[in-house]
Amino acid sequence: MPTSIANPAEVIQQTTNVDKLRQFLNVYWLRPENAFWMTLRSDTLARCPMNGPALDVCCGDGLFSFIHGGGELDLSFDVFSAAGQLDDVTNAHADMFDVVSDHYKPTVVRQPDAKIDVGMDLKAALLDKARALSFYQQLKQHDANEVMPFGDDSFQSIYCNAAYWIENIDLFLQELRRITRPGGCIVLQVKLACMQDYTLEAFRDQLGDRFLEIIGRGRLDTWPTLADRNSWEKRFEKAGLSVEDACPFVTRTHAQIWDVGLRPIAPLLVKMANGLKPDSRASIKKDWCDLLGELLSPMCDQKLDFFNDSSEPAEIQYVLRPTK
Ligand SMILES: C[S@@+](CC[C@H](N)C(=O)[O-])C[C@H]1O[C@@H](n2cnc3c(N)ncnc32)[C@H](O)[C@@H]1O
């Protein structure tokens, strides 16, 4: 006899998560730990309707927002076939995706129901990739450390999952406030400073510097404004933003699994996959995604946590509104 009956809403949510995970795995299969993290982000963001005009700040190649919005890509497409600078990833910390490539051809099976008005990012090559999705009405290259190239009250909704990448964080938050309409909202998904502790750093004596350098690959250098929860909330207050909702959605367990992941060997996996004949690549990719879809679906539970202390969450979604 079953001891409990599943709540239908939970069953639908789990099914949706598994479908989303499959879509993220399809494009990020060689970095499966990013696929489950994006599934957690998308699941949490789904609580916030993004009414237009909408701005996606630090949109990158746009694939996260495209898949979040219900877009689907064919199995023949993934971000790795057009990756470059592979020999410079491990030691020079190059971004393998920040390259222009003729191989980048997203084969769209389904467009999201709604387009996003504006996508903005620092990197021109990523914006070119976003353009190939035909999902943003407009794409703007801009450094978010500077005053935003938009008028006051331009947007009803703003989304950003990379605020901790921005050095000039106080100006950035003030600018978000300025360009948000009265009654509009800003959704920020921010990593917390405890991410630095959810690593193998405590075992440096046993593992050695080189081990941690290979695993870390300069990640922390790209996150200059990580902060604890209290400091993020003080920054929001200072910028004239009030917190309407704060939803922790990535646990210490998620962060520690992600910390090791396949990051160190990704450049080699990419080279190997791209050296395969298209038929073999597609068939291995399909089996890989089937297996990882099963393995990672338990990770897509926002509450999954194997640590029994009350650790700080690794990432929080804030819904912010301009104060009057
Ligand atoms: C982790 S990626 C996230 C991309 C996208 N939102 C996603 O979920 O896939 C961080 C993004 O922030 C962008 N970025 C970093 N610093 C920036 C800056 N100062 N101004 C604008 N974009 C920046 C990077 O180019 C990159 O696309």
Features:
alpha/beta; Rossmann fold; 37% helix; disordered N terminus; binds S-adenosylmethionine
Order of helices and strands: HHEHEEEHEEHEHHHEHHHE
Name the CATH architecture: 3-Layer(aba) Sandwich
CATH class: Alpha Beta
Proportion of residues in helical segments: 25-40%
* Strand coverage percent: 15-25%
Main sheet properties: 7 strands, mixed
Structurally, the number of domains stands at 1
Global morphology: globular
Alpha-carbon distance between the termini?
Answer: 56 Å
**How would you describe the oligomerization state of the chains in this entry?**
single chain
Examine the coordinates and then state which fold CATH places here, giving the name of the CATH topology. Answer: Rossmann fold
Low-confidence stretches: 1-6
Order of strands, main sheet, comes to 5-4-1-6-7-9-8
In short:
The chain is of the alpha/beta class and 324 residues long. It has helices spanning 8-28, 32-45, 63-68, 124-131, 169-179, 204-207, 209-216, 229-238, 252-260, 266-274, 278-296; strands at 54-57, 72-73, 108-110, 116-121, 136-141, 155-160, 180-191, 241-250, 315-322.
Describe this structure as you would to a colleague.
It is globular and about 60 Å long. It has 324 residues and is α/β, with parallel strands linked by helices. It has a single domain (8-322), classed as Vaccinia Virus protein VP39 (Rossmann fold, 3-Layer(aba) Sandwich), CATH 3.40.50. It is 37% helix and 18% strand. The strands form 2 sheets. Strands 5-4-1-6-7-9-8 form a 7-stranded mixed β-sheet, with helices on both faces. Helix 1 crosses helix 2 (32-45) and helix 1 (8-28) packs antiparallel against helix 11. The longest helix has 21 residues, at 8-28. The structure holds S-adenosylmethionine. Residues 58-60, 64, 121-123, 126, 143-145, 161-162, 165-166 line the site of S-adenosylmethionine.
